[in-house]
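Lay summary. Proteins are chains of building blocks that fold into shapes, and those shapes determine what they do. In this project we predict the shape from the chain. Here is one chain we studied, written as its sequence of building blocks.
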Amino acid sequence: QVQLVESGGDLVQPGGSLRLSCAASGSIFSFNVMAWYRQAPGKQRELVAAITPGGSTNYADSVKGRFTISRNNAKSTVYLQMDSLKPEDTAVYYCNRYPNGISWGQGTQVTVSS
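And here is the predicted shape, written in a compact code that computers can read:
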């Protein structure tokens, strides 16, 4: 059974940086687009960034220029480098296959606050 395990979330001040990691078991990575999503309190889960097996990327307008998605297929891991963080980036962050996701992991909490 494929599992997704996100890590790297923390409390950070506005303007700070974090690097999230998502490790997947099984063969989900090799031939699939992978994506990061986030869900803020009281809001729907939204797509943040996606990356193809070949490394092409796409970003939500709200994070473009500040976040960078990357992947290591050999390690079955996808990363999200988040710079210039803003309070509105506060959310639980999840990774999953895109567009047909599997069961969600537990996510990792990112809180941006002074």
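What the prediction tells us: The beta strands are 4-7, 11-12, 18-24, 33-39, 46-51, 57-59, 67-72, 77-82, 91-98, 108-112.
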